[in-house]
Amino acid sequence: MSSALDRLKNLTNKISSYEFARKSNMIKLRELFTEVGINEKVDTFEELFLFKAINLSGASLLEESLGEIKEGKYLQILAISYDRNAKIKSKNISLAYFGRVEHVDSDVKNRVVEFVIRYRFEKSFMTLEHYNTILGKFGEKSE
Question: Are 98 and 76 in contact, with CB atoms under 8 Å apart?
Answer without folding.
Answer: yes
